[in-house]
Amino acid sequence: MRGGEREQLPVQLEQIGWWSEQWLARVLDRAPLQFDRACDRWRGLHRAAQATANAQHAVTLDASRSQESKREARRLYREAIAQLELLTASTGPSSQSDFYSYRYMASEGFLPGYNFPRLPLAAYIPGGAGRRDARDEYVQRPRFLAITEFGPRSIIYHEGARYLVNKVILPIPAPGEEDAIASERAKLCGACGYLHHIEQGGGPDLCERCGTLLDQPLTELLRLQNVSTKRRDRINSDEEERQRQGYEIRTAVQFAETDGRVWSRVGDALGRDEQPVARLDYGQAARIWRVNFGWRRRKNKELLGFVLDTERGYWQRNDQAADDPEDPMSGRAKRVIPFVEDHRNCLLLAPTQELSEAQMASLQAALKRGIQAVFQLEEQEIAAEPLPTDQLRRLLLLFESAEGGAGVLRRLLDDPGKLAEVAREALSICHFDPDSGTDLSHAPGVSEHCEAACYDCLLSYGNQRDHRLLDRQQIRDVLLALAAGSVRASATSASATGHLETLEARADSSLERRLIELLATEGRRLPSDSQKLIDGAGCRLDFLYGDQYVAVFVDGPHHDVTDQRERDRLADLRLEDAGYTVIRFHHAADWRALLDEHRWVFGEADRS
Ligand SMILES: [Zn+2]
Ligand SMILES: [Zn+2]
Predict the structure, then answer these.
(1) Could you say which residues of the chain have pLDDT below 50?
(2) How far is the CA of 350 from the centre of ligand 2 (A)?
(3) Which ligand is nearest to the CA of 188?
(4) Of 488, 511, 541, which one is at a domain's C-terminal end?
(5) What confidence score (pLDDT) does residue 319 get?
(6) Which residues surround the ion ligand 2 when the cut-off is CB under 5 Å?
(7) Are 405 and 475 in the same domain?
(8) In this predicted structure, what is the pLDDT of residue 265?
(9) How far is the CA of 361 from the centre of ligand 2 (A)?
(10) With contact defined as beta carbons under 8 Å apart, do 236 and 176 qualify?
(11) Would the pTM of this model clear 0.85, i.e. be above it?
(12) End-of-domain residue from the set 436, 468, 488
């Protein structure tokens, strides 16, 4: 970029953390390596599906296996084939696939998101008398809405008429198969809402996120596909009430994992005096499920899901709705739990001290609004939900609505001061002075005192179910603590403190330890790995910043000898050829200046 052009930019580039003179060259240099790495998740999934298909196919041909295990093998085989078709987008229009290349590359953060429309689900609306247009039609909904709006025996309003969702459009069963329903299994952590999708075996016993003992797996989970409706003119008051109260929906999240690498990072939100206030987990392209457990208003709360005719696809009618005429069920039925899946960048926020239901609900509303204000997002661009359930609120799940997203949640982790800025904004929104915490009683320009919550602070049309819980007074202190603190991020999925200890223990020399200590005391980003051998370059790095492709060396006095200097120079060249940026900390150099110079790697110093 020429100097003249740069002067015309509205912001001073030099003040931006990620900017340096070499920025553009670096981005271009790293592109091939980054592209390669962006394909890793796809490769891992493809390999896994192929391995499953091969292994399960072998079981079906094995005469020594029981009928039972062959049936299970057929189910797994079918699932793997469906997964492979999805991965290669070999059925249906490719642009409708999750793995459509542009969509996938955006979800991996390699391409910008361009706000890809989320893949919708469709409901078939039969044409006929009474409608302006007598043709058959499909209406579409984003899948996170479709799980409720297209739920079993729910009512869809379309062009002034009512339609009942009475049927799932089932795929054609393979020859020799009883039905085409590939149901899935998973364990949800009752303590934190973490999802464990079970591909084989019984699944883990302990939650992979929080270590809590897990319950029996949910079986017969049905990935909700397109549905079909029939015209329904009358609806009784009972049905109306059931419809109004809606379904019991639970959201669960699982960080992406390929070849043993979990795509998440952890950080600590510290308050005043470095006291931990919350733990943060950031997941890139994490798997999010929304599961429909049944009507909120159902007799037996233990009974989950809905009865589905597995041959014809009809949802069994609700017993409590007497005048809901039964569809011609085939007699082959089983109880299934519908769910939808999506991949989003997400952030989990778990307060260190237990907060009440009202505090969690209020914090959720306040942080959502704070994030919207700081990053200038529309309300629907960011979602916030309680985990594990809305009766048991232990964590907040925040996720971006667009694929790839604007990257704002990642910045809450990587930028030490960003969460504090959000908290300050949230305090202002809640009518508190962000510095002193003084209650200002109402929004500017409004005369009425806001006791607990109003539409200027926590209430919105989107969170009506929570209105009875929202109370700005109850979250003043936790917001003040967040506003006075900063975030210390770890480069890995281990907690920052644990990671720091590992790095210190593995440090090869006192100089390496000194660098780690300096990074920690300045609140800078820690390396993702140490003593890492890079095969392609034939050398061992002192430290690696994996996400940024940066190799760090700490050079003691023996590096000043001519021979060694030449060896170092050649190693640097090989690393640069492989796409890495090399940063050397010479024992006599000004390390603080080096850190400042490479803020795009090490982050800003927290010198408050
Ligand atoms: Zn858990
Ligand atoms: Zn208010």
Answers:
(1) 1, 320-322
(2) 25
(3) 1
(4) 488
(5) 58
(6) 450, 454, 456-457
(7) yes
(8) 82
(9) 15
(10) no
(11) no
(12) 488
List the domain range (segments joined by +) for residue 556.
494-602
Note whether 298 and 359 are same-domain residues.
no
* Centroid of ligand 2 to alpha carbon of 447 (angstroms): 11
Specify whether the CB–CB gap between 431 and 33 falls below 8 A: no
Q: Which ligand is nearest to the CA of 366?
A: 2
Same domain? For 334 and 364 the reply is no
Query: Domain of 582: which CATH number?
Result: 3.40.960
CA–CA gap between residue 19 and residue 406 (Å, rounded)? 18
| Rounded distance between C-alpha atoms, residue 203 and residue 4, angstroms | 60
Confirm whether 526 is domain-assigned: yes
> What burial class does residue 129 get, using C-beta atoms within 10 Å of its C-beta: 0-12 exposed, 13-18 middle, 19+ buried?
exposed
**458 alpha carbon to ligand 2 midpoint, in Å?**
6
In whole angstroms, what is the distance from residue 254 CA to residue 341 CA?
Answer: 11
Residue 169: per-residue pLDDT? 77
Ligand nearest, relative to CA of residue 206:
1
430 assigned to some structural domain: yes
Residues 548 and 420 placed together within one structural domain of the fold: no
Select from 560, 607, 553 the least CA-distant residue to 583: 553
Tell me the residue type at 83.
Answer: Q
The reported pLDDT for the residue numbered 460 is 92
- Angle at the Cα of 431 (from 425 to 437), degrees rounded to 5? 80
Distance 597 CA to ligand 1 centre (A): 40
Q: 58 lies in a domain?
A: no
Total Cβ atoms within 10 A of residue 201: 7
Q: What is the pLDDT of residue 482?
A: 95
- Listed residues: CB within 5 A of ion ligand 1: 189, 191-192, 194, 207, 209-210, 212
Same domain flag for 464 and 507: no
252 Cα: distance to centroid of ligand 1 (angstroms):
10
- Using the mean position of ligand 2's atoms as its centre, give its distance from the Cα of residue 429 in Å: 8
Question: Under DSSP, is residue 230 helix (H, G, I), strand (E, B) or coil?
Answer: strand
Same domain, 426 and 539: no
CA 153 – CA 290 distance, rounded (Å): 18
If one counts the domains in the chain, the total is 4
Q: Are residues 246 and 391 in the same domain?
A: no
Q: How far apart are CA 375 and CA 141, in angstroms?
A: 27
Which ligand ends up closest to the CA of 446?
A: 2
Ligand nearest to the CA of 213: 1
Q: Give residue 606's pLDDT.
A: 67
pLDDT reported for residue 11: 57
Same domain as 315, residue 361: no
- How far, in Å, is the centroid of ligand 1 from the Cα of 420? 26
Least distant ligand from the CA of 387: 1
Ligand sitting nearest the alpha carbon of 193: 1
Phi, psi of 33 (to 5 degrees): -65, -40
Q: How far, in Å, from the CA of 113 to the mean position of ligand 1? A: 30
Residue-wise over 503-535: b if at least 16 C-beta within 10 A, else e?
Answer: beeebeeebbbebbebbbebbbbbbbbbeeebe
| C-beta separation of 364 from 384 below 8 A | yes
* Distance in Å, CA 469 to ligand 2 centroid: 13
269 assigned to some structural domain: no
- Give the pLDDT confidence score for residue 549 in this predicted structure: 84
303 C-alpha to ligand 1 centroid (Å)? 23
